[in-house]
Amino acid sequence: MDFQPTAGQKTCPYSGHAAGSSIPAANSSADSLRTTTPSHSSHDHHHSSPATSETPLDGPPTCPVIFTQEVDPLLIKTSLEDRVAYLTDFLNFTSYDSDIIKKIGPAVNDIIPGLVDDLYAKLFEFDITKKVFMERNQGFDGPLPSKLEDLTLDSAQIQFRKVFMKVWARRVLTADYSKGKTWAYMDKVGIMHTGVSPFKHQKTMGIAPLNVPYRDVALALGWVQTLLTTAILQLPEDMASMTVKIDTVAAVNKVIWIQNDLFSRHYIDE
To answer: Which ranges are annotated Polar residues under compositional bias (predicted)?
Structure first.
């Protein structure tokens, strides 16, 4: 269908939005989480954007001025701090996202055991994802089946692996995203799945790290994202309004995609 902008709603040729139109803020009903100062991403110590006034100005609508940041592709490849700054800036992951995850996270914390059980059940549906569990996990010294058909969801190593998966999922919902150690942890989670150990104790003890294809890592993250999204949206209205739930889903999705990048950067040489 051909939609024509009305008077006062001239469309910017490059923005995809109607300049001067009244667009409701997605986070309007969640003002209790906001402060009087704007949120900033971790990249703000590198770049600053021009201040904008919340007072509407008289005159014809104009297209927004785009401030173009300079990003060093080599630096974001070697520096985790700069890479995270770029990721959070691009996805607009702010302190508001972090705050709303912390606020709603406890309400969905109880679904984590079921989420992990469902994820491993899904991984057992395909031999290529199930075979990964035939390799001894770091720190696991219990019995390990010699045949794939003998490996079950109740096997000792699977129960061992689920513990770490639950820790990761809970950290997504409770982490302090203003701290570099949070992103460093997520980066190490990425490294440890590539067959290279990021932890000193693994090397000294001769423990073989995980070696999981990125294809399956990305699919698992997609599965987790769907389950978390569903759990958040199913929260009762007396616990969270629809606006808050939508904002929380958006914030969690940003974290999942940042974690995805902190996996892929160790698999893909770009």
So the answer is: 24-38
Question: Residue 18 has what DSSP assignment?
Answer: B
Domains in the chain, CATH or no CATH each: 74-264 (1.10.490.10)
CA separation for the pair 219, 193 (Å, rounded):
14
Q: Angle 31-93-236 (CA atoms, 0-180°, nearest 5)? A: 50
pLDDT digits (tens, 9 = 90+) for 26-74: 454 444 444 333 344 445 444 444 444 455 556 677 788 888 999 999 9
pTM of the predicted model, to two decimals? Answer: 0.74
Residues composing the chain: 270
Cβ–Cβ < 8 Å for 262, 187: yes
CA-closest candidate to residue 97, choices 39, 22, 23, 25: 39
Q: In this predicted model, what pLDDT tens digit does every residue of 81-93 receive, in sequence order?
A: 999 999 999 999 9
Q: How far is CA 140 from CA 137, 148, 193, 203, 212, in A?
A: 5, 18, 16, 15, 17
> What does the alpha-carbon distance between residue 51 and residue 61 come to, in Å, rounded to a whole number?
18
* CA–CA distance, 106 with 84 (Å, rounded to integer): 25
DSSP state of 147: S
